[in-house]
Write a structure and sequence with these properties.
This protein is α/β, with parallel strands linked by helices. The chain folds into three domains: 127 residues, NusB-like (N-utilizing Substance Protein B Homolog, Chain A, Orthogonal Bundle), CATH 1.10.940.10; 42 residues, no CATH class; 213 residues, Vaccinia Virus protein VP39 (Rossmann fold, 3-Layer(aba) Sandwich), CATH 3.40.50. β11 and β12 form a beta hairpin. The chain is globular, with a radius of gyration of 24 Å. The N and C termini lie far apart (68 Å). The protein binds S-adenosylmethionine (SAM).
Length: 526
């Protein structure tokens, strides 16, 4: 079948947190769905009683080969994401391998899965017009097939008749004959217009409701549009061009960034292996094509996959001038170990004798990932510890990084479902831990020492608000000029006096990472 997806395929990053889910058509009664409503127990048959392709096995894989294996994989991932909180970037590669899909089939499955997940907000707005039933009242199989079909119709080069026919077959195979006519009718309605036409009907007028317009146009919940606008200093109703660019970039396929361990490899080695030197990080390179594990330095643990802004956060901490000792560094929230790997390399080269990095991580299984990340570097020790209940004495360290747990709104490119899964309540509930970890980091650093507070979220409640609240209780702490530690990177100034660094995908091609550099007052402060 000559099908050419228009959108890019999603990028799969190794070492992502969280557990893979398994696909399932089983619904938990009354389970809260991703549209935030209680899902009624549908009358339809999610187990596919009259499923002509055979029953599902316990892993959700088919016992007989489905007639459309690529779309079946996409559907199974969407159902697992919706019903079991699975992570697409973990489950998809598992299913592709399990069902032995490669080449064009794998590319199609990837494009459809990531496209339907990212575009859900837009597609649901269109489907709300085309369906005479509330989307939330539909059987999950029917709803996900409609989203997949709508993505194919509005955002790929797949012929409309093929998009509709394959969707009808998919729903027949998964849920029986009964919903096939409904899916056929709805998708035929979707096929009557292109995306631009649908947006003019489905999205609010930009002048009347700029946030609502951007939410539907770029497929985000309203609260994320508002959060990005606030972080970019743009007001709803005024010029929101930066917000719009940030939203658009959040749905793009991220390049794979690699980072060497200083002392064990250098940027030149990655370039010689076919990568492009990173724009700013002296340790980084971009891999445009292929498997990172095929690069010798990565396979041997002398380099790893790490976003360039994440590299620069670690570099910024290491660049701040210190008076006095510079021998003990702490990574307080180290798992899975990207920054710890780079910091361990940098520590080994610090000063004359080098420094030693302690990498602490709350969760044992993530501490094991840190251990394997730093295993090639001699200068690091990994401990399982709660940063808020320190396993170290006060003022024990010269440099501390608190790369705190956060909403991850800065890495939406890598996690296509995250924008629908995260809620404002998550951001609120993380605030206490973020404040406690930053306060503990300031306690852990000696007078004159430096703390880097880092998040992979641009949300002000996780960035500037946290720093402001903690510093209000510790008025002597100095806010250092973080962008000055990264003079090579343009356009990162943020916050009062522009002293914080805020990266953005649309400006820097990186995750939206926030960095504050803070110095404990002391006699040795220069
Ligand atoms: C944003 S991630 C850190 C990413 C890491 N620095 C890297 O570059 O790979 C936050 C980590 O903090 C850990 N964590 C959560 N609460 C913690 C606590 N109280 N003490 C220490 N680590 C904690 C989480 O398990 C998670 O691995």
């Amino acid at each position: 079948m000559a099908e050419t997806p228009r959108g890019g395929t999603g990028q799969i990053q190794p070492g992502q947190p969280n557990q893979p889910g398994q696909p399932s058509h089983r619904r938990e009664p009354g389970k809260q769905n991703q549209r935030g409503k209680r899902r009624p127990q549908g009358k339809d048959n999610p187990q596919g009683k009259d499923n002509p392709q055979g029953k599902r096995n316990p892993q959700g894989g088919r016992q007989r080969q489905p007639r459309d294996p690529a779309r079946q994989v996409a559907l199974d991932v969407l159902l697992a994401v919706a019903d079991r909180d699975a992570y697409a970037n973990l489950l998809l590669p598992q299913l592709l391998a399990q069902r032995q899909l490669s080449g064009r089939d794998a590319a199609l499955a990837t494009e459809l899965t990531y496209g339907a997940l990212r575009g859900r907000g837009t597609y649901d707005a269109v489907l709300d017009i085309c369906c005479d039933r509330d989307l939330d009242s539909l059987d999950p199989v029917v709803r996900e097939v409609l989203r997949l079909g709508t993505h194919q119709l509005l955002a790929t080069r797949i012929q409309p008749h093929a998009a509709v026919a394959t969707s009808v077959n998919l729903v027949k195979d998964a849920a029986g004959q009964r919903p096939a006519g409904f899916v056929n009718a709805v998708l035929r309605r979707v096929a009557t217009r292109d995306l631009a036409d649908w947006l003019s009907l489905a999205a609010p007028a930009r002048d009347a409701d700029s946030v609502g317009y951007l939410a539907v146009r770029y497929s985000y919940p309203r609260w994320i549009v508002e959060a990005f606008a606030a972080a970019l200093g743009e007001a709803p109703g005024a010029d929101m061009s930066q917000t719009e660019a940030a939203l658009a970039a959040g749905s793009e396929r991220p390049a794979v960034h690699l980072c060497v361990v200083p002392g064990l490899a250098d940027q030149q080695e990655l370039v010689a292996a076919g990568c492009t030197a990173a724009r700013w990080s002296p340790f980084g390179a971009y891999l445009t094509d292929g498997d990172p594990a095929a690069i010798a330095a990565v396979a041997e643990g002398r380099a790893g996959v790490q976003d360039e802004a994440s590299q620069l956060a670690a570099a910024a901490l290491s660049r701040v001038g210190l008076d006095g000792a510079d021998a003990r560094w702490l990574d307080m929230c180290a798992g899975p170990g990207g920054k710890a790997r780079l910091l361990a390399g940098l520590a080994s080269q610090a000063g004359g004798a080098g420094a030693r990095l302690v990498a602490a991580e709350l969760r044992e299984h993530r501490a094991r990932l840190v251990q394997s990340a730093v295993t090639q570097v001699g200068s690091a020790g990994v401990i399982v510890a709660d940063g808020t209940v320190p396993a170290w004495r006060e003022a024990a360290f010269d440099r501390v990084i608190a790369d705190v747990p956060c909403s991850g709104l800065g890495a939406l490119r890598r996690r296509p479902e995250a924008r629908w899964r995260r809620t404002p309540a998550d951001v609120q509930s993380l605030g206490g831990l973020q404040r406690a970890l930053l306060a503990a980091a300031l306690d852990a650093v000696r007078p004159g020492g430096v703390v880097a507070y880092v998040t992979c979220s641009p949300h002000l409640a996780e960035t500037q608000d946290v720093v402001a609240d903690v510093l209000a209780a510790q008025p002597g702490v100095e806010v250092l000029d973080a962008p000055a530690a990264l003079p090579e990177v343009p356009g990162i100034r943020a916050g009062p006096g522009g002293r914080y660094a805020q990266f953005w995908p649309h400006l820097h091609g990186t995750d939206a990472i926030f960095i504050a550099l803070l110095r404990q007052p002391g006699p040795t402060t220069p």
